[in-house]
Amino acid sequence: MLDESESYLWPDALPAQRAAQVSQSEVVHIYPRRGAVPTDLWQQLLEKATRQIGVLVYGGLFLPEFNHRWVPTLREKALAGAQVELLFGDPEGKHIAERGNDEGIGAAMSSKILNALAFYKELRDLDTVGIYYHDTILYNSIYRFDDEMLVNTHLYGTPAAYAPVLHLRRIGGAELFDNYVASFKQVLGKKRAVWPEH
């Protein structure tokens, strides 16, 4: 009724050891790098989602660039009532500059973000879509599709495409999925609109 798991509402309901065991069951698969994630999995997860779609990245340019159905499907989902929240790194933010320097690409990181946003302009007038900037340290890129998610972990000085990805599925009483949701919500609390007039 509250659209929250039992572990979120009552985090102490399960003994710690049992909660840790259940959380292991939330891991569907581990990919050694983002490029190893099957290309059609991103679209499959998006097409199955009906309620909540969330993306937390710095740029995430690969999604709309290599999947021409990505943005149109987001639009369809939003028009059908799904809440879509897209968080991109602030091109003028200090953490974007640091990440660009760490990866040896300098200001190209900001350009990637602006390039990615050009794909999403057709979503900016939809009531159930929020497109925001954030200026936070991105420990993980998070791609949420209702009760499944892909978490692209980050490695210092390494492009996200070469870092591991966890495929998670929410299980009641477990903690892993909900911990990433909580992280997403914290960043959402520091957002600013990309297009304030919308």
Describe the structure.
By secondary structure, the chain is α+β, with helices and mostly antiparallel strands. It has one domain: Endonuclease, Chain A (2-Layer Sandwich). The protein contains eight helices and eight strands; from the N terminus they run ααβαβααβααββββαβ. An eight-stranded mixed β-sheet has the order 1-7-6-5-2-3-4-8, sandwiched between helices. The mean pLDDT is 88.
Question: Short summary of the structure?
Answer:
This protein is an alpha+beta fold.
Features:
198 residues, alpha+beta, 8 strands
CATH-derived topology: Endonuclease, Chain A
Number of helices: 8
* Rg, Å, rounded: 17 Å
Number of strands: 8
The separation of the N and C termini measures: 31 Å
Binned, the helix content reads 25-40%
CATH class: Alpha Beta
Multimer state: single chain
Q: Assess the beta-strand content as a share of residues.
A: 15-25%
Order of helices and strands: HHEHEHHEHHEEEEHE
Question: How many structural units, i.e. domains?
Answer: 1
Please give the order of strands in the largest beta sheet. Answer: 1-7-6-5-2-3-4-8
Q: Uncertain segments of ≥5 residues (pLDDT<50)?
A: none
What's the layout of helices and strands?
Blueprint: H1 6-9, H2 16-24, E1 27-31, H3 39-48, E2 52-56, H4 62-66, H5 70-79, E3 83-89, H6 94-102, H7 108-119, E4 129-134, E5 140-145, E6 148-153, E7 165-169, H8 176-188, E8 192-193
Parallel strand pairs: 2-3, 3-4
Antiparallel strand pairs: 1-7, 2-5, 4-8, 5-6, 6-7
